[in-house]
C-alpha cells in the first residue's frame, strides 16, 4: 500500500544478516513462499514480518529459514470479563495541537498549524514513520471535518465515494505541520523496540475538530450568544455556518418535525 514495509524489512534483513541493502531483493507476496500470510493492516505489519526475518543464528548455522506458524494473539494473557491482564506488548501514545481560522459567513475553515508529538519507541526508519503519522493525521482530519455520511430514511447510503463527499486535498493540509518523536524507550518484546504507527495518528485529527469548535464558540461569544454549544462530527462548512448564528441563519425557515420526509437522516 506504500506504507514503507518493504523498505523496513530490507533494513531488518540487512541488520540481522549483516549484508548490504543492495544484496537484498523482495518478491511479490505469494502463497508459493508464504502460506496464510497476514493482511496488511492493524499497525502490526512491521511487527509480524520484521520478527519473522530475524534469523541471523539460523542463517549462520545453515538451518532452514522457512517455518510455518500461526499467531493467536494475546488471549491467554487477558481476562476480558475482569479487564485484567496484559493484552498487548505496547501501546502508542501521541498528542496534537491545531490552530485554525473559520469564515463565519461561508463556514469554510483553514488549517493554520498543527504540532504533533508521538511515542514511536525506537524508530526503524524515521522518514517512513513521519509519513505514516502525517497520513494518519490527514485521514483523521477528513473524518472529523469533511467526510460526511448521508443516509436515506430507508437506510440507503447516498455518499458512497469521493465523487459524493469531499476527501482531504492539498489545500486542507495545515500550512505548518510539525512532527516530533518522544525520546526512545526500550521494549525487548518488539522489533528493535519499535512501534506500529499505521492507524494511531488518526484520532489526532480531532484536534482540528476541537479547534474549530473553540473558534465557533469564540465567534458566538462575541455576538452575545449563550452556550454551551453541541457540535457533531464531521464539522462541515454547513454546520460551521449554521453554528455561527446571525441574522442570515435566522431567515432560514424551520420545518416542524414530523411534517415532512427528510432527504437524509443524520447519523
What does the model show?
The chain is an alpha+beta fold and 267 residues long. It has two domains: 5-80, 2-Layer Sandwich (Aldehyde Oxidoreductase, domain 4), CATH 3.30.365; 94-211, 2-Layer Sandwich (Aldehyde Oxidoreductase, domain 4), CATH 3.30.365.10. It has six helices and five strands. It has a three-stranded mixed beta sheet. Helix 1 runs parallel beside helix 2 and helix 4 packs across helix 5 (206-222). The model has no long low-confidence stretch (mean pLDDT 83).
By DSSP, the count of extended strands is 5
Main sheet: strands, sense, barrel: 3 strands, mixed
Number of helical segments?
Answer: 6
| Number of structural domains | 2
Assembly of the depicted chains:
single chain
Report the radius of gyration as a whole number of Å. 24 Å
Brief summary:
The chain has helices at about 5-15, 45-50, 55-60, 125-145, 205-220, 235-245; strands at about 80, 85, 95-100, 110-120, 175-180. By secondary structure, the chain is α+β, with helices and mostly antiparallel strands. It folds into two domains: about 5-80, Aldehyde oxidase/xanthine dehydrogenase, molybdopterin binding domain (Aldehyde Oxidoreductase, domain 4, 2-Layer Sandwich); about 95-210, 2-Layer Sandwich (Aldehyde Oxidoreductase, domain 4), CATH 3.30.365.
